[in-house]
Amino acid sequence: PAARAQASVPFLCYTVAPTNTMVEYVNGVVVLEYEDLVQGKDLAESIEAAYSKDGLGILLVRGVPDFADARKQLLPLAQRFAQLPNDIKQKYEDKASVYNFGWSHGKEMLDGKVPDFAKGSYYNNPLFDVATEDEKLIAEYPASCRPNVWPKEDMPELESSFKRVGKILCDVGALVAKQCDKWVARQLESYESNKLEAIIKSSRASKARLLYYFPPETAKEIDMSQMDSWCGWHTDHGSITGLCSAMYVNADGETVANPDAKSGLYIRNRKGEVVRASIPGDMAAFQIGESAQIHSGGLLRATPHCVQAAQGPEAAGIGRCTFACFMQPNVTDAMDVPAGRSAKDVEIGEWREGQTFAQFMKATVEHIYN
Q: pTM of this prediction?
């Protein structure tokens, strides 16, 4: 729900050559220490390397307490829920939110016309079961404001595990946002102090998504030879997206190694190069979204990304489980830019002065499907 479609990419590369030796990289991706974030150390160089116009738009955070265990507990539940009988799963669909809460499978459209059966998603707000009691907001923005839907009867453990990982990612995301604010403020005197951190901490509209990518041979409608076979090219339109490293599972629910070294998350940088971004299992990843790009006047830069399906005989019967947490403004928050910055600086086609986040989100979704 927090994405923008992108055109195909010209070529592929597998590594990034870091140009700043003062910044630490893991698998070509900038990495921060959790304790450095907590202590408020100056991480400006790392933020610039990750999120400025020359960055990949993603960074890793190492040493997050409880994160690795929480991830291991949650991700297998994606497959377990997806394997439940259809009549049980349908109990937890929420048509009124256009399937943006609860279970969703085959409801999203590929290229605006082909139902996406390659993955199933369980959506909910990771922090608030009831984001608002304002009936007008709920009626006007059901995809963001309806209450959570939990499978209390058929998989009660999903709720606590989902919320546990979601809260960790939101808490660490706020620390990352604080560092972003410091870096942007140094570049731009008109930038509002603590803008991004305040958005994330005050938002009641964050949305998390537990995903199960079905084994490749089950998705007959998708060309698995394409790079974006499991998830099409898009750019997140929230502020920051928190990510877990994916977990691969066989038909019995046993964790296995990634069966295809070329599968996984790919990001296109500003040079047009495509880079495979590998996230270690004990680290959390954070991608900048278009809302942060707007609010920073174009200084923070979101990047297009996709997910390539595993291929080959070893991938048969292997599914992929993961979790994404979209930290984003409240629906009525203003999508304003700092004084002195303009659409030319922001470079996001669907953004207009005076928009709320809901209006920007609607324009983005319409662009994708039309």
A: 0.92
